[in-house]
C-alpha cells in the first residue's frame, strides 16, 4: 500500500498524491500527483500506467498546495518527482518517468 492522500477541490474533482516505487528501480521512491474526477479514477489511471498495487487508505500525506498547483497546470493532470525532492525541484510529466 502506498503512502499518500487526497484533496477534494471546490469543483468536485480530487487531487491524489502517492509515494510509489519507481517502475524501473524498486529502490527509488517517487511522488506521483494525479488530478481526476474521483479517487478511484485517479488510482485507475495509475494502474493503467503500470502501478498495479497503488491503493490509498486514509489521508496520511495529502497533496500540498504546490502539488495541487503543479498538477492543475499540467495538461495531462499527472506529474511526478523524486520523493525526497526539494520544493524548488521541477515536476515532470508522467511520460518522462521511464527516461530517468
Which descriptors apply to this entry?
18% helix; 100 residues; single chain; globular; 5-stranded antiparallel beta sheet; 2 helices; alpha+beta
Summarize the structure.
It is built from two helices and five strands; from the N terminus they run E-E-E-H-H-E-E. It has 100 residues and is of the alpha+beta class. It has a five-stranded antiparallel β-sheet.
3D structure, described in words:
The chain is α+β, with helices and mostly antiparallel strands and 100 residues long. The chain has one domain. It contains two helices and five strands. A five-stranded antiparallel β-sheet has the order 1-2-3-4-5. β2 and β3 form a beta hairpin. It is globular, with a radius of gyration of 12 Å. The mean pLDDT is 87.
How would you summarize the topology of this molecule?
Blueprint: E1 3-8, E2 14-21, E3 29-36, H1 39-48, H2 65-72, E4 78-82, E5 92-93
Antiparallel strand pairs: 1-2, 2-3, 3-4, 4-5
Task: Detail the poorly predicted runs.
Answer: none
**Helical amount among residues, as a percent range?**
10-25%
Count the strands?
A: 5
> What summary fits the major beta sheet?
5 strands, antiparallel
Q: What order do the SSEs take from the amino end to the carboxyl end, as H and E?
A: EEEHHEE
Task: Indicate the overall shape.
Answer: globular
